[in-house]
Amino acid sequence: MGTDTFQTAPEDAEGLEMEEDVFFQTISEAQKEIRTIRQKLDVLKQTHRDIKMATSTDQVSGIREDMKTEVAKVSKAAAKVKKMLDGLAEMAKEEEQGKGQAKQRMRTSMVAAMRKKLKLTLREFSNLRTQMNDDYREVVDRRYETITGEKASDAMLEHMIETGESESIFQKAILDQGGNFSETINEIKERHDAVMEVEKGLLELHQIFLDMATLVEQQGEMIDNIESQVARASTFTAQGTEVLRDTKTLHKKIKRKQLCLALIVVAIIAAIAIAIILTVR
């Protein structure tokens, strides 16, 4: 029995070391993926600026394909990081039942920090999504005024953007006004398709962002709970030490009092003995 224990101990130690390596390697990979996502964000911001400046259908169509590709890559990377962090969170959770609170708190804090980092990065994609929608609305508004000579109402703009019926509305306006604006109509259609495709991809990222926001909040509460438990344990330890110190002090005082009482009793007995001896003489 003792031999088995001796043989498995090194294996357990090796297993713990491998687990530690996996944890930190995964953290490193997640950091790398988040950096890649940030780089893709910069690329998308630039393509967004490019599509704003585009003046032809071909330009808009080319940029649209670029944006679609980049958004797909970002969605894939974000989903990968989320899966990594979920796995790390499970590893950290197992520490609660295994190796102690110190390591659990360290791992939980690291996962929470990574989730917060991903959340902040994805928030910028949400901001970009809002900016793209606002800019597309502005383009449709300008094109409508160019074709019809009138300013579109907010309700009409919302209808054209949400339904994608800007093409048919523009065609009707062209028939009413006369003139050839086919290039403008095609450009608007390309812009609408681009916005819808990017919107779909960014909505997936937004969902991951919401998941991260919820998990960061929950994990923050978990970390606070662990820290409060540690603080409470430290307080109990300090209080226990103080009680022990007070007990020792009280014990010393009692011993001194007992000694004094014993000396007094001895003195009284001695005095009585002396008195008896003197009386006998």
UniProtKB/TrEMBL annotation:
Any single biological process term in GO? vesicle fusion
**What SMART domains would the database entry show?**
SynN (SM00503), t_SNARE (SM00397)
Q: Name one GO molecular function term.
A: SNAP receptor activity
Residue ranges spanning the membrane: these are 259-280
Read off the Pfam families from this record.
Answer: Syntaxin
Where is it localised?
Answer: Membrane
Q: Which GO terms describe its cellular component?
A: endomembrane system; plasma membrane; SNARE complex
Q: Which UniProt keywords apply?
A: Membrane, Protein transport, Transmembrane, Transmembrane helix, Transport
Outline the extent of the T-SNARE coiled-coil homology domain: 185-247
Q: Which domain of life is it from?
A: Eukaryota
- InterPro entries to which the protein is assigned, alphabetical: SNARE (IPR010989), Syntaxin (IPR045242), Syntaxin/epimorphin_CS (IPR006012), Syntaxin_N (IPR006011), T_SNARE_dom (IPR000727)
Where is this protein chiefly located? Answer: membrane
- Membrane-protein topology: Single-pass type IV membrane protein
Q: Which family does it belong to?
A: Belongs to the syntaxin family.
What is this protein's name?
t-SNARE coiled-coil homology domain-containing protein
